[in-house]
Structure formats: C-alpha cells, structure tokens
Design a protein that fits this description.
The protein has 185 residues and is α+β, with helices and mostly antiparallel strands. It has helices at residues 8-11, 17-34, 89-104, 127-130, 140-155, and strands spanning 38-54, 57-75, 78-84, 167-180. The chain has a four-stranded antiparallel sheet with strand order 3-2-1-4. The longest helix is centred in the N-terminal third of the chain and has 18 residues, at 17-34. The relative contact order is 0.23.
Length: 185
Amino acid sequence: MKQQATTKADSGFSYSQAFFEELVDTALHHARTVGATDAAAEASEACGLSVSVRKGELENVERNRDKSLSISVYVGQRRGNANTSDFSTAAIRQTVQAAYDIARFTAEDPMAGLPDEADIATQPRTADELELFFPWAVTSEQAAELAMECEAAALGTHKRITNSEGAAVSAQQSHFFSAHTHGFR
C-alpha cells in the first residue's frame, strides 16, 4: 500500500485522511474475504509533546508519534480484535487473519455486533463542523517556560510551601478514520 503523507507543516501528521480511508477499506475488504460476517476498522495517528519541570529545573522533554490500525471481526455473534502499527499490505492481512482467528474461537455473545444500518449516521461531518480540532503549536521551550511559571505560582501561594512534585505541560493531537461493513464511514 502506497503511503501518502500530508504536509507536515500544516498538521504535524505523516498520513492523510485519504490514506487512512484506503487502509481501512483494505482491512474491511480482506475481512470479508477471509469469511467475516461483519467487521469494523479504525486507522489513527497521534503526535505530541510533554514537558515536565521540578524545583524550577527542566526534568523531562518527551515527544511521541504513534500510529495504528485496529480491526474487529465478527463471525456471527463472535468477535475478535487485533491491532498493528505496520501499514504494509502483508501486515494488514496478518492482522485481519489474527482477528478472524480470535473470533472463530471466542464464545458467542448475543450482544456482540455492529449497530443496525437504520441507526447509523449517514451524513459525514468534518472536524471543522464539529469544532473538535484545536492544534497548539507549542515548542518544548515554551512548554517548559509555562510549566515553570505554573510551578512557581503554586509555590508562591504560601510561604510554608517549599517543595512540589513539579508541573507538566502536554500538547497532543490525533486524527483517525473509522468505518464498518454496515455502511458507517
């Protein structure tokens, strides 16, 4: 599967929404191919920064970047789930097969399954419409300064407070695409 990157300057993400749609569609198609009666999949990516300080000193700066594909496969009322961070076609097939194998050997659950098609929202909405995405382009230096200001403010509330467990500032963002075989996208 060809990886499509977004413009990093725009979002900080490495993968486009279109790439995630293709990834999820590939997983759902393969689930049907191996014999699943239904399936749901989600591709996601997250990135962020965490900075902590203690006693006015920088303690930790951590950056994270994660990606995953999760697939739930249903064989009747039996459900199996598997995840991967490898977006290659071979890895997707192995992950779907693993979820299918789990479902085959799981006890039936009369409540397991996807929602009825009549209960599915069919009008897609964007993150802008839902007002869910508010990126904060904070640098590690700015985050450290803010954490130090927070710790200093806490220590300054009373003269008997002379120690703290520190302060931390984190900025995380993620995006994902979900779909299932009952038509949700």
